[in-house]
Amino acid sequence: MASRKPVNRPSVKHPSHKHPLHIFKAQEEDEIICSGCELELTGEAFKCTKSDCDYFLHKSCFDLPREINHKSHPNHPLTLLHSPPYESNAYGCDACGQYGSSFIYHCSKCQYDVHVGCAFLPETVQREDHEHVLTLVFMSPCKGREGMVFMCDVCKETVSENLWVYHCKVCDYGTHVHSCAVYENHVTEKGREEEAVLEALRIESLRNARMELENMRISNKINNSVIHFGEEPRYHWVRK
């Protein structure tokens, strides 16, 4: 019996990885993490051609622009780096406050760092339990208001004044930018934005678990403590 010839699939190179990559169809049950954005891999993707190398990329991560101008940091462009530029090999995202250890949008002048997933968050979202559209803002609504901190209206946790939030100015209602922003079954108006948000929600619990591990690896820890205030108002006076 004649042996089958191996299928020659076209391969491509990406500057983030030393080996060639080929197209790969990821299934949700595979539970694979993208080596770029560190989120769950589903749909059209790329994987390393080496059988012993677990390097995977979303197609969207493969195609990320090398430089972007972002409203959160208007004075300088943000450059795509394939690994953090720090000795710790990790960074704290200035958008959501969580850690990352792979692709990053970075400003070398200001040491401003954003997850690639956060960089493309939709500017507006709609919660089913709130009548108004929530708008992405790049700092806490309490910033500059001495003695006050902002609390997420969904989880009742404090939000650092420099982190991004989704906010309703009419009602002064706000949420964290990831899991608290929308329901998992919510449908956004733009298809690409819908995919990004839902993907972030599916992996949120995994990222939270990994955060503790990253916390131990970083010598210069970022103060990202969370205080629970139960049912207290989201504005909480801080006594000096």
Structure annotation, total helices:
3
User: How far apart lie the N and C ends?
Assistant: 84 Å
Proportion of residues in extended strands: 15-25%
Strand order of the largest sheet: 1-2-3-4
The helix/strand class is: alpha+beta
Number of strands: 17
How do the SSEs run, as a string of H and E? EEEEHEEEEEEHEEEEEEHE
Radius of gyration: 20 Å
What is the helical fraction, as a range of percent? Answer: 10-25%
Major β-sheet annotation: 4 strands, antiparallel
Average predicted confidence as pLDDT: 77
Q: Indicate the overall shape.
A: globular
Low-pLDDT runs: 183-194, 196-210, 212-240
Keywords: Repeat
InterPro entries: C1-like_sf (IPR046349), DC1 (IPR004146)
Organism: Eruca vesicaria subsp. sativa (Garden rocket)
Protein name: DC1 domain-containing protein
